[in-house]
Amino acid sequence: MPRKQTTKTPPRRPDSDRAHSSTVEDYLERILELINTKGYARVVDIAESLQISQASVTNMVQKLDAEGLLNYERYRGMILTTAGQTLALNITRRHQLLTDFLGLLGLEDNVIYRDVEGMEHHISAPTVRAIEALTEQLKRQPALLERVRTAAQQ
Ligand code: CO
Question: Which pTM does this prediction carry?
Fold first, then answer.
């Protein structure tokens, strides 16, 4: 029997207009972090940091190069293009904001890190701004923050 055709359009996902996958964002985040801490990012460092094989990293880096997000030269390493740097800074900013926010709530570091690594790829710009505003308000109202932290631990 043929499957019944659905006429309803599915609700639009808030991040459906995002052009890049979580994997691409993770690579750019890690490459920027390596460049900021070591001054350069090599395939071997990325492989170690993301716990994947150097062959997979090379494939991905070549793909990112083809997409104009970085310039890669074998044996020489890579630099982020302006587009790649913009994306990397964006994901890094989301990572920091979410880490800051969940930290305020008193959650444990390992929980925060795991959750942030997932959440950072899936929240839309309006949600980022809302969490930013909430974080700001909580920092200004220690009594309220204390009540929230206490309630969260129950
Ligand atoms: Co992250």
Answer: 0.80
The set of residues, in sequence order, having a beta carbon less than 8 Å from that of 139 and lying 6+ positions away, is: 104, 145
Return the closest-CA partner of residue 22 out of 129, 154, 121.
121
Q: How far is the CA of 104 from the centre of ligand 1 (A)?
A: 18
Q: Which amino acid is at 102?
A: L
The length of the chain in residues reads: 154
Domains of the chain are 22-85 (1.10.10.10), 92-152 (1.10.60.10)
Question: What value does the CA radius of gyration of the chain take, rounded to a whole number of Å?
Answer: 19
Residue 51, pLDDT above cutoff 50: yes
Q: Which residues contact 31 (CB under 8 A, 6 or more apart)?
A: 41, 46, 70, 78, 80, 84, 88
pLDDT of residue 75: 77
CA of 143 to the centre of ligand 1 (A): 30
Residue 5 CA, ligand 1 centroid: distance in Å: 39
CA–centroid distance, 50 to ligand 1, in Å, is 11
Q: Could you tell me which residue, 147 or 9, shows the higher pLDDT?
A: 147
Q: How far is CA 137 from the centre of its chain?
A: 24
